[in-house]
Each structure stands twice: as structure tokens, then as C-alpha cells.
Amino acid sequence: MTDIKILLSEDEIPTQWYNVIADMPNPPAPVLGPDGNPVSPDALMAIFPMGIIEQEISSERWIPIPEEVRDIYRQWRPSPLFRARRLEQLLDTPAKIYYKYEGGSPAGSHKPNSAIAQAYYNKQAGAQRLATETGAGQWGSALALAGRMFGLEVLVYMVNISYQQKPFRRSMMETWGATVVASPSDQTESGRKIRKEDPDSDGSLGIAISEAVESAATRDDTNYALGSVLNHVLIHQSIIGLESKKQFEKVADYPDIIYASCGGGSNFAGVAFPFFADKASGKEVRLIAVEPSSCPTLTKGHYAYDFGDTAGLTPLTKMYTLGHDFVPPGIHAGGLRYHGDSALVSQLYKEGLVEAMAVGQLRTFEAGTTFARAEGIIPAPESSHAIASCIDEALACKQSGQAKTLFFNLSGHGHFDMAAYDQYASGQLEDFDYPEESIKSALESLPKVG
């Protein structure tokens, strides 16, 4: 019997992160201020340490991983690459299916890959406190863990609907010593404004980002940490794809198609971007970002300059967006409920170098349940978007007889999402296809620049 797990030793953990900018055919669009002029790196120093800023603006292909960060990675890395043989048998497909499992980290997802790095650079710069936002709680949990490891206080603004839906993720954050606040809150000017307009607001990642940025900008001892979207986060997450490439080499295989869920872009970029380096050199590989049909940023959004937050406190980034005041439905894939996407992911999608598709909530949970019954691991709802698309392709291979190699990133487990699985099993979940007129309305508020 051939191996199910393809493993690397701790000595094989990459010593450098990968920066996709070095292999992009066109330079990234500049980040702008509200006046429409490019933002200087110095302007970011109010909320970020210099080590992070240098990575954010770097065009170097390889970024060294500090030994202290790499040493902590050894707690759960390298993560295993699985051959999903039982799923293949269940689907009766000639396709080979692989998945990279990031749920073995202490926080249960891929998010600590960047949280540990960000906490390290902030500690080096003398920060005492970090403020951040979180949707479903994966990023908040990861930063709470990282803050504990580096002796930093952590304040987390958690999107209100997820604060209510996922109480045990809040418990995780608090166990590691973080302070967790439901967003919108009464602790910030931006939060109070939203609550005045809508006292029962479900919140959104854009609103929570506004609160976290405001908290960081108004205290000298506090910096801001972001779990997705920005270039430095995508750089840190590249360790997923870099390890995966080594693991595929061990079994003399290579994926035809790579799938990953996409909200802000850290999951997708983390696994796909290191393979983009091969694509840029002429290798045939399809890279597919999978998003919720209720928050269809890439598939229905507009490519334009927009704020990363609801209150307009952040610089303007050119990206696919549904409008910074977009408030998505309260789906259970809370980590994907963001109005925009990474500028790098957006640009590559605009240029036709990566692909995107949208999946409904019911199909997502159906795929997650199918996977769990075959492979044993209960996936996070976010990860199940990629699983759904991968299963669909595996079934298409069954019809065509093609033996493609399919690969997806299982970015986290669903142990804290069982209430959602209960609702799915009892028929209480429903699909949300965000109305076109609502998207058009939100896009009307886009800044008039670029």
C-alpha cells in the first residue's frame, strides 16, 4: 500500500518565504492616499513596525525567515500533505486528489504562519500591544497565541455575527490572554457610528478593521496586525505552497489544478503563489480561488481603488471589491466575509493568470460532510469551498475518464463550527446569493481615484 501522508522532517522547513511580486509580469498598482497620491512607506509607521513595512514593499523573490520564527513553526510544521485515497474511492474518480492539512497548528488553521511572524517583528520593534480584527476567529486565535508566545497584549475586534455563532473561538482567544470585543463596539468612534446607524448590525470585517486600525493609531504602545489581504501576510503564508512543492517532489507528482478558499487572499495565495512561480516559467497549472456566492468579490466585484475598511481609515488599494460599506449575509464561513481581496490576487485575476469561482453555502457543507465521511477530518466551512470545487472536478474526471491531479488547501478544521454542521444536517441552512442591485449600490460609494 502506498503512503497516504507525505511528510517532511523539521530540517526541511523552508528557510525563506516566497514573494510573488518578483514573478508577476506587471508591477503592482501603487497604494494611494485619500488625495490620490502614492503613500510613502513612512506613512505606515503609525501602525506597522519597519520589519513588516519592508516586506510589504519588497520586490525580492526570497525573504529570509528569522530563526526564532522558524523555531516556533517547528511546533506544527511541516504540515502533512495527504493523498485523499478514501475520497477518491468514494467518488469513483480516476483523478488523484491531494490536500495540504493546516489544521494541526495550535489555533487549528493556517493563520499562525503569519501571526507568529508579525508578533516577532512587532516585539523586535518594541511594541507592547497589538490590535486586530477577526471574522470566524481563526486569525484572532492565531494572534492571541502569537501574542502569548512573544509577551504582547492582544486586543481582538470580532465580527458580531461570528462572536455570537462561534463562542468557543472567543474562548480560545481569551484562554491565551487576549481581550475580545464584539464589533461594531462602543469602544471606538467608527464602531459607535455604525451602532448608531444600525444598533443590531451583524458587523463585517471592514467594520472590525476600522476599529482595530483606530485603536492602533490612537495609542503609541499599540500596532495593528492584519490576518490577510496585505503583501506581507501573503509572503508569510507562502510556506504552505513551498512545503507542498517539496512533498509533491517526494512522490514524483505535480498538480494540474490547485484550489483554495478565498476571502482576503491569505489561504489561496499561501498555497498557490509558490506554484505561480512555475506557471510564470511556462509550467501548466491552473490556480483557482473559491469564494462564497454570498460574498462574490472576485466573480462579481469591481476592480477599482477602495478602502480596506468601512470607515475609510486605511490607504486605498486597487483590488476587486464589493464596496467598503458592503455588509455580507451572516454565512458560517466567517473568514470569507470580506468586501475586498488582496491587491496581488486581484491583479493576477484581472490579468487572467489565476481563476475564481463562487460556491453556495449548502454545496459547501455538503462537500465538507462528504469529505469528513471519507477522510475523517471535519473541515472548516471556509476550507469546504475549495473541497466543493475539487469534488466537482473529480466527478467531471469520472465522466471524461481523465486522470487529473487535483490539490486543495485544507486550511483548518471545523471543530468549532459544529453548530453550523448541526444546522446543515437539520435543514436549517440556506443559500445566500447576494443581490446584484445591492452590489451595484455598494459600488456607488467607491472613492473617485485611480
Count of DSSP helices? 18
Approximate shape: globular
* CATH architecture descriptor text of the domain at 68-108 and 232-443: 3-Layer(aba) Sandwich
Strand content: 15-25%
Largest sheet: 7 strands, mixed
Computed Rg: 20 Å
Question: What's the CATH class label of the domain at 68-108 and 232-443?
Answer: Alpha Beta
Low-confidence stretches: none
Overall pLDDT score? 93
How far the N terminus sits from the C terminus, by CA atoms, comes to 57 Å
Strand order of the largest sheet: 1-4-5-15-10-11-14
Structural class: alpha/beta
The count of β-strands is: 15
**Percent range of helical residues:** 40-55%
Q: And the CATH topology of the domain at 68-108 and 232-443?
A: Rossmann fold
Would you kindly provide a brief summary of this structure?
The protein has helices at residues 50-57, 67-73, 85-91, 112-124, 138-150, 160-165, 167-175, 189-197, 205-217, 231-237, 239-250, 266-280, 297-300, 343-350, 361-375, 381-400, 418-425, 436-443; strands at 5-6, 16-18, 62-64, 81-83, 96-101, 129-134, 153-159, 179-183, 222-224, 257-261, 286-292, 302-307, 316-321, 355-359, 405-410.
